């Protein structure tokens, strides 16, 4: 992966993408970019559990150094978003990351999550 952090402009654009996707799927979407301590899935789950409404939330955790992406969904979201669909979003992100564009990968994956998790 190229850049390990987002520029202010990329962050602003990603915030718009998140809000639009949240409106589409009626779930809260949170993104963590940083180092996952311990087992990545456990770390992502612990982050997800700290959200205001974890049952209605999607957490996307990206550890650029370890090249790991985890998506954790709450119970309400899992009724509409399958693991296979979440994996499609991971694949979309991976394609962007492989091209060296963290922001584009996140945007593609979050837009897809918003579409796939619709009621």
Kindly describe this structure:
The chain has 119 residues and is of the alpha+beta class. The protein has one domain (8-116): Diaminopimelate Epimerase, Chain A, domain 1. Helices cover 53% and strands 16% of the residues. The chain is built from five helices and three strands; from the N terminus they run H-E-H-E-E-H-H-H. It has helices at 8-25, 40-49, 75-78, 83-98, 102-116, and strands at residues 28-33, 57-63, 68-73. The chain has a three-stranded mixed beta sheet, with helices on both faces. Helix 4 runs antiparallel to helix 5. The longest helix has 18 residues, at 8-25. The radius of gyration is 13 Å and the shape is globular. The mean pLDDT is 93.
Q: Give the averaged pLDDT, no decimals.
A: 93
State the end-to-end CA separation: 33 Å
Q: Report strand order across the widest sheet.
A: 1-2-3
How many structural domains are formed by the residues? Answer: 1
Helix content: 40-55%
What's the shape? globular
Summed up, the helix count is 5
Radius of gyration: 13 Å
What is the structural class? alpha+beta
N-to-C series of helices and strands:
HEHEEHHH
The main pleated sheet reads as: 3 strands, mixed
The CATH topology is given as: Diaminopimelate Epimerase, Chain A, domain 1
Low-confidence stretches: none
The top-level CATH class is Alpha Beta
β-sheet strand percentage: 15-25%
CATH architecture assignment name = Roll
Number of strands: 3
